[in-house]
Fold this protein.
Amino acid sequence: MATRTQARVAAADAAGPGPSATWTGHTYAALDLGTNNCRLLIARPERRPRRRNSDFLRVVDAFSRIVRLGEGLGRAGRISEAAIERTIAALDVCRAKMEARSVTRARLVATQACRGAANGEEFVARVRERTGLELEVIDRETEARFAARGCGSLADPHAASVLLFDIGGGSTELVWLTRSPVSGEARELHSWTSLELGVVTLAEHFGGRLVDARTFAAMKEHARAALVHFVDETAEIARCSRFHLLGTSGTVTTLAGVHLGLERYDRWRVDGLWMSDAEATRAIERLRAMDFDERVANGCIGPQRADLVLAGCAIFEAIREMFPATRTRIADRGLREGMLLELMEADGVLGA
């Protein structure tokens, strides 16, 4: 049976955006269920003009929980019962938040774990039965598009091209953005790829608790091999002196927190931060010098990321080596923001 939230969303979708391109009264929700995390963002359009399109979102509520939906998936090929129960518990919190905030327009997506699991469809059906939430398993191209839409506004508008990367739990998306000849901003999607490579899959294959220099090198080489085809594909694209990387993931936001020496993670200090190549190297070296217990104790890492963060660093290192740049911009935004912006654009309410 559908929840009250689902009924309101269905009714609003059937009614359409309405005749006006101004505030419609909708409250929007975007849910991103990945291999590692379950994230919800609830927002309304911000009526005041802002410098970046993503700043048109006025956040009403948010939720994030590490559920490890893809735990053991690489070995078993299936989502485990324990992972299903953890995830359904988190999704039930999301449902309650959506109802409490009177959400009327929503998009709820699942990514690599559900795409790759033999019981992915069965899991989606159980979620629908237990919570009333209808998950949409999106393809890789849609995932890349949402990521680009959600954080592309952070790209240097004067850069001719930018490489956006999103290191997930079970996959990594790379999107080459070029400057639009119309708007002059680096936000057009030129080419993209999605690798079946993420922090969970890499850590489970090589180990994540005790990562010595040899293990880290093996992780990085594995990631480099996966990147070769995209390096070849983008080799002829012109790169100006302002070319840079744009990273959105727990890996890069954690690194930014470590770089800043934060005792507790602070999104407002991390989102939009520029890190030089040397600063990124020092942050990774600092992380690699920590043992597992030190990573657990770090306020920007904690017990839920302590066995995954070095796998993410290895992927980031491989990207930096294969696509050299003098700086990386850090984005604490991505798929959810992209989904919300697309929903609001369809209703004609952005910039009202």
In short: The chain has two domains: 4-140+336-347, 143-335. Residues 1-23 have pLDDT under 50 and may be disordered. The radius of gyration is 20 Å. Residues 4-140+336-347 form a domain with the Nucleotidyltransferase; domain 5 fold (CATH 3.30.420.40).
